[in-house]
Amino acid sequence: MNKHNHDSNCGDFAEGAETLPRNEHVGTFVEGAKRRCRTNMSARSSRDLAPDLMVIAGFDGYFKRVNPAAERILGYSRRDLLSRPFLEFLHPDDVQRTLDAFADVMSGPDVIGFENRYRCADGSLRWIQWNSWTVTEQGLIYAVGRDVTERRRADAELREAQRMVEGSRAELRVLAAEQAALRRVATLVAKDVPPGELFRAVVREVGTLLGADFSGLVCFEGGAVVAVATWAAVGEHPPVPPSWPMQAGDPATRIAETRQPERWDDWTDSEGPLAAFIRDEMGVRSTVGYPIVVGGRVWGGLGVHWKRPGPLPPDTESRLAQFTDLVGTAFANAEARAEVARLVREQAGLRRVATLVARERPPEEVFASVAEEVGRVVGVADTLMWRHEPDGSAIVVAVWTQHGSAPLRLGARMRPGGRNVASLVLRTGRPARIDDFSTASGPIGERMHAAGIGSAVGAPIVVEGRIWGAMVAATREPGPLPADAESRIEKFTELVVTAISNMQARSDLAASRARIVAAADEERRRVVRDLHDGAQQRLVHAVITLKQACWALQNDQEAVPGLVSEGLEHAERATAELRELAHGILPAVLTRGGLSAGVQALTSRMPLPVKNGVSVGRLPPAVEATAYFVVCEALTNVAKHARAEHAEVTARIEENTLTVQVRDDGRGGARPEGSGLVGLTDRLAALDGLLRIETPSGGGTLITAAIPLTCSDARAAPPTRAPLSD
C-alpha cells in the first residue's frame, strides 16, 4: 500500500470514528467506520482533534499511524510509538491477553470492547478500551481506543464503599449474635438452673459463637484441674480424664496465678499432662483461656480451641470475658441472681436495638426503641433523647413514659441553659446526674421539675468526635438513681451512634453520588452548548463560504480569494474557540508543566497580586488536576467575593501528603456549603483527601486541601527550587 492510500485510509477511519453519535450501538460504530474508510475522503482535521486514540497497526506488531490523542493520552511522541512494538507499552500482565486478541483480529473477526493497560511515559497506567477490525489484504488493523481509566477507578471506589457498608452490617450481625448468646446464658443463670445445665450451655454458646473446634469449662480443686463441661463442633469430644494435676507453667496454673486471660498459639513445646492431652488427643493448635472469678478467687477457667493453622482472633479474650462473668454470677447469692436478671433484661434490650440497627430501620424507630429499653433497664418511668441543633437549641427526638404524660413532648425545642442534665452533658461532654431536681434551673430544668421529676442521669451521644445529643433517664421517685445508671445508658448510646453513623454514611454517599452525576451532566451540557454556539457555527460558516468559493472558482468569478480568506478566518476562529474550550476542561499548561506551571498561569490572570509558592514537582495526573481545581476555585472566590488586596498559594509535600493552601487578606466569611466548595470536597474525597476552611469574619480566608500520596508518588515529586513569585 503506497503512502497516499495509507494516509487516506487512516483519515477516513478517523472520520468514521469521530462523526458517530455517542449512543450508537458499537457494532453500528464499526460498520460505519468501515464504510467511511472505503470512501477515500480525507479527514485529517477530524483525526487530529479526536479525543480517542486512533491507530493503524500492522501484522508485524508495530503501529503504522497514530493520532495526536494517542500521543497525549500515553505521553509518548509519535516517533516513540511508531518505532517500538506496541506490546512493549503494555502492562506485563496484559501481554498474553493482547496477543490472543491480536491473533483473533488478524484472522478476520472484529474485536469489540477489548480492554488492556498501557504504561504511559510518566510511569502511570491507563486502561484503554479498543474496538478494531482488519483489512486482511492490506495486512493492517484499524482500531479506536477510549481511555476508561477514570470509569474503572470510579467503579472500584463504588465497590469499596459498598464493601464498607456491608462490613458495618456484618459487625452488627456479629453483635446481635453475641448478645443473643449472652441473653440465653443469662436467662439460664436468672432461672437458677442446675450447674451442669448452665455449664453445658456456656461451652456450647461460646464454641458456636467463636467458630471454635472445641470449648471447655474447668474448675480448680485441691491442686487439680477438673473438666466440668466440654463441647465439640463436629462429632464427639475426645474422652476427658477425671482430672489433671496442676504444675508450674501449665495453662491452668498460669490462669490461676495471674488471674488474667492467657493464650497459646503453639502447643508444640508445652509440657505437662494437660498440654499433652490438648495437643496429642485433641489435635489443637491454638487456645485462649479466661479465668472465672467467684467471690474474689479464681474458681476455674473457660477455654476455646482451634485445630486449624493460625491463632484465634485477637478479640477472643474480650468476648470470653462476658460469658465468664455470667458463670461467676451463677455462684453468687440471691442478690447476685437479681443482678443477673437485670443483665438479662439489658442484654435482651441491647439485642433488640442492635437488631433494629442491623436491619437499617428508620432513625426515629431506633430512637424510640432505645428510649423504651433504657427506661426498662435502668428502672425509671421517663426517658428522653435530645439532639443538639446548630443554633444552640436542643430538640426532643424520642420520649418514653409509664405515666399519662411525659415531662416534655416529642419534637419540643428548648435552650439547654442553666443547670440541668442536658446542659451539663452538652457543656462537659461526659455523663452527668442531678440527684435533686429542685436545684435544677434553665427552661429544661424548670419544665422537668414542674412535671414531678426528682432525679435524672444522662449520657452523651458522640458522633465523629462531636456531641450529637444526650440520652436522659429520669425518675419521679425521691432519691438518686443507681450509681451504675450512666454506664448502663452508655451501652445503648453506642448503638445509637452506630445507627446515626450508618445513616450519615449512606446519606453522604448518596448525596456525593448525586452531586457528581449532576456536575458531570452540567459539564457535558456546557461543552455541548459551547460547541454549538461557538466552534460548530464557525465551522458551518467556513464550509458554506468554501462551497461558495468552489462555485465561484468553477464560474471564473473574481470573488474566490475573498471567499477563501473568509472561510479560512472562520476555521481559524473555530480552532481558537476549541482550544479555549479544551483549556476550560483541563489546561494544557497543567498537562505539560505540572501544578507549578498551572498555578502560575492562574495567578498571572488575577486582578490582584498573588504569590506563587508551589514547591512540588510532577505528580499523578489525578492529583495535579484536583490540586489545580482547588486553587482555581479558591482564587475565583478571592477575585469575586473576598475584597482582598493580596493572596498567596502554597503547595508542599510532607509525610506523603500533598498540602495545598490558598490564603487571602480579604473580609472572610466564606461559606463551606457553596456549590464550588462542595464540589471540591467531593473531588478530594475521591482521592481520600480533605478540605478545611478557616474564615473568621473580617480576618481573611485560608483554604487547605490535603491529598494523601503513595510513597513512590511523594519521592517522584521533589520540591522545586523556585522562590515565591508574584
Give an overview of the whole structure.
There is one protein chain. This protein is α+β, with helices and mostly antiparallel strands and 726 residues long. It folds into four domains: 3-147, Beta-Lactamase (2-Layer Sandwich); 167-343, 2-Layer Sandwich (Beta-Lactamase); 381-585, GAF domain (Beta-Lactamase, 2-Layer Sandwich), CATH 3.30.450.40; 587-715, Heat Shock Protein 90 (2-Layer Sandwich), CATH 3.30.565.10. Helices cover 49% and strands 21% of the residues. The chain is built from 21 helices and 22 strands. The strands form four sheets. The chain has a six-stranded antiparallel sheet, with helices on both faces. Helix 7 (149-190) packs parallel to helix 11, helix 7 (149-190) packs antiparallel against helix 12 (334-358) and helix 13 packs antiparallel against helix 16 (485-554). The radius of gyration is 37 Å and the shape is extended. It starts with a helix and ends in an 11-residue tail after the last helix.
Question: Helices and strands in order, then pairings?
Answer:
Layout: H1 3-18, H2 26-37, H3 44-49, E1 53-58, E2 63-66, H4 68-74, H5 78-83, H6 95-106, E3 111-119, E4 125-135, E5 140-147, H7 149-190, H8 195-210, E6 214-221, E7 224-232, E8 244-245, H9 251-258, E9 262-264, H10 273-281, E10 286-294, E11 297-306, H11 316-330, H12 334-358, H13 363-378, E12 382-388, E13 394-401, E14 413-414, H14 421-428, E15 432-434, H15 442-450, E16 455-463, E17 466-475, H16 485-554, H17 560-585, H18 588-604, E18 610-614, H19 621-642, E19 647-654, E20 657-664, H20 675-685, E21 690-694, E22 701-708, H21 711-715
